[in-house]
């Protein structure tokens, strides 16, 4: 309903200075347009020296951002992961994490602060009124948008103020390098570490429960024993990494029950040693059935026949468990005659 359709007695009324009610006519709009306040010029609009000062401030912020990004990359290279420092009032903290957080925070903050300072002091702040229009863009509207864009670009000084433009490009070009450097967390590269364990010729088999070297008589027929290489300790900083590859599963089978020829050659009096690490996803195998000589992985039920080269007879595992060749040293203790001849654990694309 328009103001012309409203009865005059229902229109809003005003009072004059004497307090008499003045009735609005139907031709007057009930809500007056307040308009825009008068535009106030900033100091940078009228003083070129102030504008140059603001330009240098913005350029300085972008330059600090570039230096902080370089510091981020340098920190990633300079600080070892295990280095701990004391920072008051935070306390003890990783030097690498602290340096990365500070430098990346400064780099991002300075880009934002520079952009805000540029917009508030150098870009045009004249209020523009535009009437509402239909959603679809008419040719005249598109032309006006492009014209406004060109005018805004001109007023921002983007083309004229080359110092700001070039330092902004430099800061925004360097910041993404921080994300590239973070890819280092996907490494370090394994090189050939997956193909070697702590086992070597002459290393005795040590019981993981008693921490004593094993003799052949310590392994009974039908029993399951877990072993690790001599020289390893649970207090070593890399123990978990190394035991995840070197953990050994030892069983004793009657020699006549061993079906695989190589398995029999690599055993000692029916004592066979296989990797404890399942070849599916690396779970530790801990279940053994002495009648069938089957070892079962509790995670996904992969089943291996330890009397037939530890081949897979059930489950998702992709290949047999690696066997460790063993013998007896001069003191009568079981010892390794070398490392595993194939990588232990799950398959990987470079396995070959």
UniProtKB/TrEMBL annotation:
Subcellular location: Cell membrane
Entry keyword Oxidoreductase: yes
Rieske domain sequence ranges: 240-335
Protein name listed in UniProt: Cytochrome bc1 complex Rieske iron-sulfur subunit
Gene3D superfamilies: Rieske [2Fe-2S] iron-sulphur domain
Membrane topology value: Multi-pass membrane protein
Transmembrane segments annotated in the record for this chain: 58-79, 85-116
UniProt similarity note: Belongs to the Rieske iron-sulfur protein family.
Matching InterPro entries: QcrA_N, Rieske_2Fe-2S, Rieske_2Fe-2S_sf, Rieske_Fe-S_prot
Biased composition (Basic and acidic residues): 38-49
Major location category of this protein: membrane
Pfam families the UniProt entry points to: QcrA_N, Rieske
Source taxonomy: Bacteria, Bacillati, Actinomycetota, Actinomycetes, Kitasatosporales
